[in-house]
Each structure stands twice: as structure tokens, then as C-alpha cells.
Amino acid sequence: MSALVLTLYAITLAGMIGFAVHRLKVLWMYARHARKPAAPAQWKGPQPRVCVQCPLYNESLMIEGLLNSVTALRWPKELLEIQILDDSNDDTPAIITRWLEKNPSLAGCVKHIRRPHRGGYKAGALAYGMTLTDAEFCAVFDADFRPASDFLEKTMPYFSDPKVGVVQARWEFSNRRASLLTRFQGIFLDAHFVVEQAARFGSGLFFNFNGTAGVWRRISLEDAGSWSADTVTEDLDASYRAQRRGWKFIYLSEYTVLSELPEKLTAFKTQQYRWTKGGIQVARKQLGEIFASDLPSRVKREAFFHLTTGFVHPLLVTFAILFVPYLYFAEQVEMTGIWFVLNPLSVLLVGGTTVILYITSQYFRDRQWTDGLLWLVSSPLLLAFGLAMSVTCCVAVIEGMFTMGGEFVRTPKGGREASVGGVMKKLRSRMLFAVVTTVEVLLGLVMLFGAIYFARHHETDIAITLFIKSAGFLGIAAMSIPDLFPRQRTAAAA
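^ Glycosyl transferase family 2, sequence as received from the core. Prediction below:
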């Protein structure tokens, strides 16, 4: 048994080290290339027609803010149309109608579009909207995004280069300081938007349109095959198809669009589940064609790591399962040979590169060391939170490996008033999150008992490590349990 546990643990560590080495490479690319901002551009010739597409589903808490923002965009009114692609089945359509009636001066370029069915989810709505416009460019905004009035003035000039297919702005979060949960989310997402996206763009590698806060040249999207609903991350799928066709993508790391982070843990889990599942689906769909293409080897390598990054989550879950047994058997067995390499490498690369990535993103987000140093101090808790979140993403990887497409489950937004009841209405979703929460509880208890065991044997450092990791699993489970029973909680409150 000890040999089996130690062997599996060594394999898991080796896999995690592989992903950590790639993380180190991304940091190196960022340091070398990403500090060069996209070259300023000036539009040449007559201004083009732009269609602003706003796909939404049951966004009663967010829709008025979205309408206020997109109707304030500065662009010649005769060259601007705004599509509200509304698939809602709640009171959102009525709210939109009232807003349009109250703001006739702003409603002239707004089209409230209702499809007869929600086929294809977000991808289907965007594709349907494109059949109703002849605009050369399409900007996309999800319901919780609030573009500044100069958004088109800042992004459209880059399309003066006819090879540019997409211009993507960086996401920023208006409620990142609302709670500890949103602070953690902000750090996780900053690692992608501040560091990874900028590093890939600056290095001339493929990166993805993020589904919102960006503009597409219509012909580039059509050339790539348009929107497809055969994955749940239609943005990532279309991005790779377009770049494989030779279209250039521009990332504006210094220009941001405000959005909102989900303030409930189940909403965050829903978002991460969809992104992880969709990434694996796109990998299955496109990696074979990417490897068979004549793209440069470095582009192929980065595409592989980018699209398969979700596989780190099964490794993290395996690590969590084996960690306490490993510590127990490691006391009983003389650790020689490979362990003198694996153990220090895992600490240095897996933990160290993750913390450096987070600190780097926090500093270069607003050029202040304060937040970066704050999270350096609290990094053990942050890493424990990330480890616990891996259970949700591990399930997403498994589903992404064996299914294509699937329901596009919206992430509930709207601050603390947002309800996750819609997510939990379906038995499948409730069962899924119940299983995930159960696993989180079990892993948390195993680590808690491990902490007690090692504390009694005077292994204080190990006990503290296990206790922190246990707090991550049990804390996430405790925050998730109320969302599994939204009706009972509402009734109790009443």
C-alpha cells in the first residue's frame, strides 16, 4: 500500500510540476514581451457601421445598467445599432420595454430581439443577431458589463489594419472588494487577464476573445465558420478557428471594461465549471487539426498548454486525496532517490510560481505593491481556496472529455440579490453540486483528521499545512450548502 500511494503521489507531483514549468514560461513571456502595449492606431477612411450585440437570459437585475452603458457609446448614430438579444423567460423583457419607452431619445438605435426558442444558447443568439444586420463589425457585451462611452473610439482604430479580426479589452471588476470571495475571484481572474492574455499577445501566440468586451470584424468570424454551439465556450472555439485562418487578434491590456464578479460561491462554481468544460471540449475539437497544420511549433505548444490547462484540476484532486496518506507513509518509509528532487521541486515550482503569478497580476493591474504583498502574506489561504475549487473543475474536465456542447448555464449576477435558484431548479444541476460539495466535505475532514494526528505527534508544521487546506475545503463546502436548498432558505427567511 505504501509503495502504491508513494508511486501515485510521485506521478501526480510530476504532472503538477509540468504545469508549473509552463506557468514559469508564461511569466517569462510576460516579463519579456507583455510590457509593450499595442501600438496606437488611427482610423483611415470613412467610419464603418457597428452592431453592438448584447446576448442575455433572465438578467432583470443587470439589464438597465447595460442599456444605460451601451446607449451612451460615442459613435455616429446612423452607423450604430444595438441588438438586445433577449432569450429571457422572466420579467426581463418587460423591464427592457419600460426602459425603451422611458428613454425614446436613446432607443432609436436599439432593437429588442426575441427568438422563438433558445437554440444554441449564447452562440445561437449571436448568430441569429448577425442575420439581422449588415454591419461590418460586431461588439459583444454580456449583461454585467459596463463599457465606457469611448469604447468604440478606443478599439475601432486598430481595425485600420485589414488583417485584424478581433480587438479585446481587459476585464476589470467593480465589486472586487465586496467580500473575501470576490477578492479571491479577482486575483484568480487577474492572473488570466493581466498576465496570461498579455503574455500570449505580446509573444505573438494565440489568445482568446473572452466572450465579451471585444469587437469582431464580421468577415473574420464568417471566414472562421461563425459561432458554433458544439462547445459551451463558443468564444474560445471561434478565437482559435479565426487565428488558424490567419486573422490577427489585438489585446488592450491597458484599456479596461468594468464588469461584475458573482457574489455567491455557487454562481462562481457555475462559471468555472462552464469555462473548464468548454476548454476541454475545444481541445478535443481542435488540437488534432492544430498539430496537423503548418503553424509554428511554438504556437502549437502554447495552444496545447492553453487548451489543456483544465487537466491540472484532476491532478490537484488526486493530490488532495493522496496528501494525508503520503504524509503518513512517508514517516514509515525511508525517503530517498527521487523524493530529494520531487519534494523541493513541487514546493518551489507549484506553489512558488502560483504565488508569483498572483503577485505579478496584482502589481501590474494598478502599479501598487500593497495588494501583491497582502496576498503574499495570505497566499496559503488563497492556495487552499484554489485547491478546493479544483473539485468542481475536475468534474467539468470529466464531462468535457466525454460530451460536446451542452446547456449554457448562465452565471447569476446582480450582487448579493442575485439568486442561484435558476441554477438549482434542474435535478441534474442540484445533484452535480451536491456531489461536489460532498467530496469537498470528505476531503476537508480527511485533512482535518490528518492535522489532528500530526499535531499529536508533534509535527506542527505538517499539522498547520493540513489545517489550512482543510479550512479551504470545508469553508467552500459550508458556503455552498445553503445554495443547494434555495427554497428552504427563502422560506426560513420569510
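DSSP finds 18 helices and seven strands in the chain.
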